Amino acid sequence: MRQLLLFGVFLAVVSCKEISYKVPQPKGRKALTSIPNVLQGSYMLTSAEDGSKDTLIINSKGYMAASDQKQKSLGDSLVLKFYKGYYFVSINENPEWILRIIKPEADGNLTFMSMNTRQESFNALLTRLSQDDITIDSLASGNDTLYQIDPTPRQLLKLVKHGYFSETVKMQRIGKSD
What we know:
Number of helices: 3
Largest sheet: 9 strands, antiparallel
Number of domains: 1
Strand order of the largest sheet: 5-4-3-2-12-9-8-7-6
Radius of gyration: 16 Å
Number of strands: 12
Structural class: alpha+beta
Distance between the termini: 29 Å
Shape: globular
Strand content: 35-45%
Oligomer: single chain
């Protein structure tokens, strides 16, 4: 159950389909080579979906769950970028990139967000994105269809501010990194 929670934290697909990206986001921004001090520490994770808990440990190189003890490090398949107060975590799931957003809070906690596909049907989400001038490409991948967008950094920030992304996991700081 705990490994499922960690998987849910960074790859949580809250529905069968998810909007993905062609490149790590925000595009054109430089990837960070280490995780900033503001994000480092130990966090109690509480799933918004089922209330399950685990501890996430973030250090300068990457992160791991206390229940798993397997380090996931920044690199070609895990990219961290900073833009306008948000940290963007892009995870390579060839042939697509999955995006999660982290916003540090004043109290040391982190707000962890993913694109909200729960409040509306996936088709309604696609329609709403199109109405906001976001081009959506579809790509056949095996028996599934991937839906990818390629927003500018400004468009991506607009999506965040207009509620396309919502909190999926509460990350309460329980310890500071040394």
